[in-house]
Amino acid sequence: MTYVYPVVSRRAGGVSVGVNLNPNNACNWRCVYCQVPDLTFGKGPAVDLVQLEQELRGLLEEVTHGDFMERCVPEGVRRLNDVAFSGNGEPTTSPQFGEAVDIAGQVLEAFGLLGSVKLVLITNGSMLNKRPVADAIARMATLNGEVWFKLDSFTAEGARRINHSAAPLEEHLARLSIAASACPTWLQTCLFSWDGQEPVEEELVAYLEGIRALVERGVPVRGVLLYTVARPSMQPEASRLEPLPETWLRAFAARIEAAGLPARVSA
User: Fold this and answer.
1) Which of 102, 127, 236, 248 supports an S-S bond with 92, CB 3.0-4.6 Å?
2) Mean pLDDT of the chain
């Protein structure tokens, strides 16, 4: 299919039905751990909304009333967790992101899943200061919605190196405040070894100080989704990246919680 795909999500702990609004492999960031081949700089193309709805209805029919779970999903994770805007680029760059949100809500309601299945946006947050995007996120809040907002580093150097983003940190945090005020929002943070070296303590301290500042300012972030690289990157830096041990991630998660936010680990 062009827009809709299923995945067993380690972070979700079940089946996630993905909605890919960037089938052109275009994104406005280039994260070094990105698994999209032939990634290009740009935004999502025009979407065939009729086809999107047909694909979403068809897959949900297979998942909820067909034998998809028995055929394709290991025991223990045979549950539908969410419909997630997550694809081959930043979904909020799509000119029809808001319409896609509305369609997803209508389809979930038609299947009797509204309220029991989450509607998730996995985003780098770069477009959340745009009114149409912010309005769509506010509508997501009424659809059992949740935003996973990327923040891998609280330093300008870290954001440039990991995400190839030159946006000032203050602007990124302002967009985070918009998201968190409109819809339940989690930070999603990917940490990894680079050239065999764990993240340096200066970066980690800056991250923890950033978490404390968010808490002190009352930004209503729900917590941190902490993970590491799991599948090979398709970017030029791929050979330099290695996953961090689960013990390391859990130790840093404890430091995040001491700074004031809950942390969930996906190793």
Assistant:
1) 127
2) 95
DSSP the chain: --SEEEEEETTTTEEEEEE-S-TT-EES---TT---TT-EES------HHHHHHHHHHHHHHHHHSSHHHHHS-TT--SEEEEEE-SSS-GGGSTTHHHHHHHHHHHHHHTT-BTTBEEEEEE-STTTTSHHHHHHHHHHHTTTEEEEEE---SSHHHHHHHH---S-HHHHHHHHHHHHHHS-EEEEEE--EETTBPPPHHHHHHHHHHHHHHHHHT--EEEEEEE---S---STTGGGEEPPPHHHHHHHHHHHHHHTS-EEEE-
The answer, as to whether pTM is greater than 0.90, is yes
Domain boundaries, the chain: 4-189
pLDDT, tens digit, for every residue of 150-174?
999 999 999 999 999 998 999 999 9
Helix 169-182 × helix 131-141 angle, to 10°: 40
Place of tokens 């030159």: 166
